[in-house]
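Audit log entry. Action: structure prediction of a protein-small molecule complex. Ligand: pyridoxal-5'-phosphate. The ligand was supplied as SMILES and no pocket hint was given, so placement is left entirely to the predictor. Protonation state taken as written. Sequence taken verbatim from the request; no trimming, no tag removal. Recorded inputs:
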Amino acid sequence: MQSIPPLDLTEQYAAIAAELNAAVLEVLQSGRYINGPVVDAFAEDFAQYIGTPECVVCNSGTDALYLALRVLDIGPGDEVITSPFTFIATAETISAVGATPVFVDIEPDSFNLDPELIEAVISPRSRAIMPVHLFGRPADMSRINAIATAHRLYVIEDCAQATGAQWQGQKVGSLGHVGCFSFFPSKNLGACGDGGALTTADPAIAATARMLREHGSRERYYHEAIGINSRLDALQAAILRIKLQHLDRWNARRAAIADEYQRLLAPIDQVIPPTAPQAGQSVWNQYTIRLSAAASDDDLRQRVRQQLQQHGVNTMIYYPLPLHQQQVYAALGYGPGSFPVAEQTARQVLSLPMFPELLPEQQARVVYSLKDALLQR
Ligand SMILES: *Cc1c(COP(=O)(O)O)cnc(C)c1O
């Protein structure tokens, strides 16, 4: 019996190998590996796909977040409001520019930061809100934008897990001042290596981001700011250009798989499946359930995970420890219980295999094995 991985990238490559190989070969033969027409073409395609006038491509999602913060001149003494239940890069980049992440708890059903809690932490030092569209599900951008406007804050969307997701008919990354994307291989639009992009409607933001990404230079060898080197390789751009053409189809497959999981999991008592957003569309980068149990959630989850593994079903835990409880953020002084929803969520979540090529029989086996594991405890 072949085991089912949480994510399989080989099937996707096999399905479009001829297209990808030809595009890669063309770049190899062109001799233009940094910047150039393929990189520009992908940036244009991506801007059009997201629905923003501007797109600045860069080397990773982390760099996109860092550049967004730098462009908006956020630094020492400033505060940025974000979620404690996300990948470290979200808060890490806030710290990297010298600002302070200020966390608010999440909503239990969406896993995203709870807009109701934002106003209570706004201070004279607040500069921006950084919502994360976690697991592909859009955050409530209507309420977040309303609060940001009322308090004159920037909105930087962390779209790393949500390429193609929509809120009220608009793609994420076009709703705040800046959208930040990752093309890490496991994201919905994944390169064969690192990659990232920043989207915005503001040409001045885009121009400054381009300057910072090229060593603080607009004209080669003339430098006006301390920047970084963060380019998207031509090889990755060529690959992403092709994959972008398939993205909507892949995201539709993910949505169909999520519907099927929902149907299969509904009868299982101890499982709380994720919900779909009311005013938007998730792109299901992860399908993350909660295992509910009164007492030690974590022990139950470990046992279930091990038994699933014996059935050849591999799962992931995104994320086992919220950011405010990470060692690196001990100095921020958030004690246990600071964000009870995030803390409980971290003990209960389990991400099931989710990728567009997941077969119906594999999916049935995931659910069957999960039922079995829960019965046996
Ligand atoms: C992946 C990810 C990032 C960082 O992207 P990289 O391309 O890996 O640097 C940032 N935020 C979130 C929520 C992510 O999932």
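Audit: result stored. The mean pLDDT is 96. The first helix runs from residue 10 to 15.
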